[in-house]
Design brief:
- The complex is a heterodimer.
- Chain A is an alpha/beta fold.
- Chain A has 2 domains: about 260 residues, Rossmann fold, CATH 3.40.50; about 80 residues, formyl-coa transferase, domain 3 (2-Layer Sandwich), CATH 3.30.1540.
- Helices cover about 40% and strands about 15% of the residues of chain A.
- Chain A is built from 18 helices and 12 strands.
- A 6-stranded parallel sheet of chain A has the order 3-2-1-4-5-6, sandwiched between helices. In chain A, strands 7-8-9 form a 3-stranded antiparallel sheet, covered by helices on one side. A two-stranded antiparallel sheet of chain A has the order 10-11.
- In chain A, a hairpin with a 7-residue loop joins β10 and β11.
- In chain A, α1 crosses α7.
- Chain B contains 18 helices and 12 strands.
- At the A-B interface, α2, α6, α7, β6 and α8 of A face α2, α6, α7, β6 and α8 of B.
């Protein structure tokens, strides 16, 4: 058990989709024992979410599910049955951390609110992740990543002024909330070790995501202005070159001067109309056109290395294929090949941080109900015959 | 127990810019005692961002003031042997050292993890440079926007018909910071159990690339390069931002199933178009997304964005207004949960700041002190931790090893004039498109 940072930490995982599973993935990947409870038959709905291997919808072949559930154990359990609830309570007794991301009325509806679970296990850390939090007028409202972007304030300032506001990437707000879930679960566990006291933690995805741009509400209060959508905001930009895209950021005068040096156009430095950041902001289109014509016949990696020689923060903007072949990622072995019975070996994003003493472990996601016997028999002491009966009753 | 999870944990924090300070801000929020180190020779660069180019502009950086709450702030010239010695004495008293310089910086100072373990054998050290501490690109310069770029996220972001990849320009910084805080807690848990410290090597780019798992898995499984799709979902429809009543007012609607679609149609009064065969199932809705959007907008444009949220949420349809930052501040739900906390800080005065986005039943987390002004806690820290006398501290100030005024702050613009210019750029001339 040594060699894993979170060895010995027992997590009961009642999560689905992205935010909750990402939270428990962080714990599992660094060594916690995570028992994921899934609905008998269909399991975590992420199992039916694209992308699938060879585009073939299959509960064991969803790329998102496979990534989000590495190193976990899967147990099926029907919480809508009285026996299911009893089994759950037995598992709660043995857990350090319970993570759930149902809408706030679900757990109390099942008779499994924190006050009840606390009586079974006073040292339980229960982490609830929900779109709007456990309290407040919107608590029962529904939201996806897109709605959260809209509510956060961030989306309002992204995009072209005459078009609809934009969100970025895929489910960023869910990953952020998942990380908060991991952070606060571990913090509460740390407190529990000291104070012998569990607690209930309420993570709001909306509030969590707002902290990804915590300063603009403050700017609004300091100075009273709201940024309007303005396309790509100088002093950064992404521009096409011969074989892809590069992006730059020019936070200071020195960086602007380095850019002029990279372009071998020292005369730009002398132009009074480009002298200050504000002036350059006003003429960003003009400046971008100069850079684009210079980039036209150049390769992204060549430009990247030449810029970095000048300490200019200009980088590649890779597509997924280019990303997987990045020399830096290769040297650091960021991408990991993970074998799985249903898909064979696939390449996954690996450790998000490297620990010198307790390395990250590249395990696979579980098959639905793969660990029923291990958990119910070895852990809770049921017999194999009991499992057959539970299965017949659709409890597992 | 003080009632905070990380009570008794001490962090010596050399982080500057945003990602690193965000990591230690979260740990400070959770109760760790964080001693933030910058210098009068080189301010934390975040003080220059988001502030005004005025004489005291380095205290007006909203982003700095938000990312350094609950910390103690000292200045220390690390290029002076005396300054470095003070740093080492602080390390001896700390549990965790954090930094996000280029990897060569701490090495050049003789403050690598190996060196720090000689001072404190069970120290945890978090290093979080852009590209990580190893590999051929380790010393390359990156800022938050670059981190977002190198993950490839901009390639899958932006308008479907747009020419350009698109990005936020900032989200990678706080996200990597959040990952840094998780990393520290993971190592702290291990130390708690075994007594052993360790070195955390966090590449901000790797951390944020994890958020790209969907498109990456699609590529590794199917060799598919996902494309920009604006606000749309990869397969479910309708999803998007729709124009509402008023000027530049929008609502997001995200329908995830046929049942939700049915409830949506009921909620908007089942206009004739909703019964057309081409909108009957998810696949046909996706194929006819543009036409469907026009019809939906006919309805949304007649209603207020908040009213639409209420109408649709009553029918259990995921919908919400696109809020600007002012509207977030005054939102009734946000107010009911007390998310923003009012904090009074020297120079900047009294303002609301976003609080910790998580509520603890036993150990509530709040903003206990505002971000430090430059060198604010020099005397407190040097006295309390190192037992220095007033005279010793005065001597350090004389030698410019510590101080409270930046050297060579280049800006002298009148604050009001600077704000007026910024306002003009961000509000008045938003109509220009970028290249």
């Amino acid at each position: 058990m040594t060699g894993k940072a979170l060895a010995g930490v027992k997590v009961l995982d009642l999560t689905h989709y992205i935010a909750g599973p990402y939270c428990t993935k962080m714990l599992a990947d660094y060594g916690a024992e995570v028992v994921k409870l899934e609905k008998p038959g269909s399991g975590d709905p992420t199992r039916s979410m694209a992308p699938f291997l060879h585009d073939e919808p299959h509960p064991e072949k969803s790329g998102l599910f496979l990534y989000l559930n590495t190193n976990k154990k899967s147990v099926t359990l029907n919480l809508k049955s009285a026996t299911g609830v009893k089994l759950f309570q037995e598992l709660v007794k043995q857990a350090d951390i319970l993570v759930e991301n149902f809408s706030p009325r679900v757990m109390p509806g099942l008779g499994l609110d924190y006050q009840t679970l606390k009586k079974i296990n006073p040292k339980l850390v229960m982490t609830s992740i929900s779109s709007f939090g456990q309290t407040g007028p919107y608590r029962d409202f529904r939201a996806t990543d897109l709605n959260i972007w809209g509510l956060s304030g961030i989306m309002y300032e992204l995009g072209e002024p005459d078009r609809e506001p934009l969100r970025i990437g895929n489910n960023v707000s869910e990953y952020v909330a998942g990380l908060y879930g991991a952070l606060v679960s571990l913090s509460a566990l740390y407190y529990c070790d000291e104070a012998s006291k569990g607690q209930h933690i309420d993570v709001s995805i909306w509030e969590a995501f707002h902290t990804m741009q915590p300063s603009m509400t403050v700017v609004y209060s300091y100075a009273g202005f709201i940024r309007k959508r303005a396309g790509i905001r100088f002093p950064w930009g992404i521009l096409p070159c011969k074989d892809g895209y590069v992006g730059f950021y020019l936070p200071t005068q020195i960086h602007w001067e380095s850019l002029c040096a990279l372009l071998e156009m020292p005369e730009l430095r002398e132009k009074p109309e480009y002298e200050t950041p504000m002036l350059r902001e006003e003429r960003r289109e003009e400046i971008a056109a100069i850079i684009v014509s210079w980039l036209k016949d150049k390769r992204m990696e060549d430009v990247f290395h030449a810029a970095q020689e000048l300490r200019l923060p200009l980088t590649i903007v890779p597509n997924p294929e280019q990303l997987l072949h990045t020399p830096q990622h290769k040297a650091r072995k960021f991408f990991e090949d993970i074998d799985h019975p249903a898909t064979g070996k696939l390449t996954y994003p690996g450790a998000p941080f490297k620990l010198s003493e307790t390395p990250w472990h590249a395990g696979r996601a579980p098959l639905l109900g793969e660990h029923n016997e291990e958990v119910y028999c070895e852990r809770l002491g049921y017999k194999k015959d009991d499992l057959v009966k539970l299965r017949e009753e659709d409890i597992i | 127990m003080s009632g905070l999870p990380l009570q008794g944990v001490t962090i010596i924090d050399a982080c500057i810019y945003w990602a690193g300070p965000m990591a230690t801000a979260l740990l400070a929020d959770l109760g760790a005692e964080v001693i933030k180190i910058e210098s009068i020779q080189r301010l934390d660069y975040l003080r220059l961002l988001g502030g005004w180019p005025s004489p005291d502009g380095y205290e007006w950086s909203a982003v700095f003031n938000g990312a350094n709450e609950n910390k103690y702030g000292i200045t220390l010239n690390m290029n002076n042997p005396k300054g470095k010695d003070i740093f080492k004495r602080l390390v001896k008293l700390g549990d965790i050292v954090t930094e996000n310089f280029s990897p060569r910086v701490m090495e050049n100072w003789g403050l690598s993890y190996e060196e720090l373990t000689k001072i404190k054998p069970n120290i945890i050290m978090l290093s979080m440079p852009g590209f990580g501490t190893t590999g051929p690109w380790r010393n390359y310069v990156t800022f938050g926007p670059n981190v977002e770029m190198v993950t490839g996220m901009p390639i899958v972001s932006g308008y479907r018909d747009g020419q350009q990849p698109f990005m936020t320009g900032y989200v990678a910084d706080p996200a990597a910071g959040l990952m840094g805080a998780v990393a520290v807690m993971t190592a702290l848990q291990y130390k708690h159990r075994t007594g052993k410290g360790q070195h955390i090597d966090l590449s901000q780019i790797e951390a944020f690339t994890s958020f790209m798992a969907g498109p990456i898995m699609d590529y590794t499984m199917n060799k598919r390069m996902q494309k920009r799709r604006g606000d749309r979902h990869p397969s479910l429809a309708p999803q998007g931002a729709y124009r509402c009543q008023g000027d530049d007012e929008w609502v997001t609607i995200a329908i995830s199933s046929d049942e939700e679609w049915g409830r949506f149609c009921d909620a908007i009064g089942n206009p004739a178009w909703t019964r057309l065969q081409k909108f009957a199932d998810a696949l046909s809705r996706y194929e006819n997304h543009d036409e469907m959007d026009k019809n939906i907008e006919k309805w949304t444009s007649k209603h207020d964005k908040r009213e639409i949220m209420q109408i649709l949420q009553q029918s259990r349809v995921a919908a919400g207004p696109v809020l600007n930052y002012g509207e977030v501040l005054s939102d009734p739900h946000i107010e009911a949960r007390g998310f923003f906390e009012t904090v009074t800080r020297p120079i900047t005065g009294t303002h609301p700041y976003p609080g910790f986005p998580v509520k603890f039943s036993e150990t509530p987390v709040h903003i206990r002190r505002p971000a430090p002004t430059l060198g604010q806690d020099n005397e407190y820290v040097l006295t309390k931790f190192l037992g220095m006398t007033k005279k010793e501290i005065e001597q350090l100030a004389e030698e410019e090893i510590i101080g409270t005024k930046p050297q060579g702050w280049p800006f002298a613009m009148d604050a009001e004039e600077a704000i007026a210019r910024l306002k003009e750029i961000h509000e008045g001339k938003g109509g220009e498109k970028t290249g």
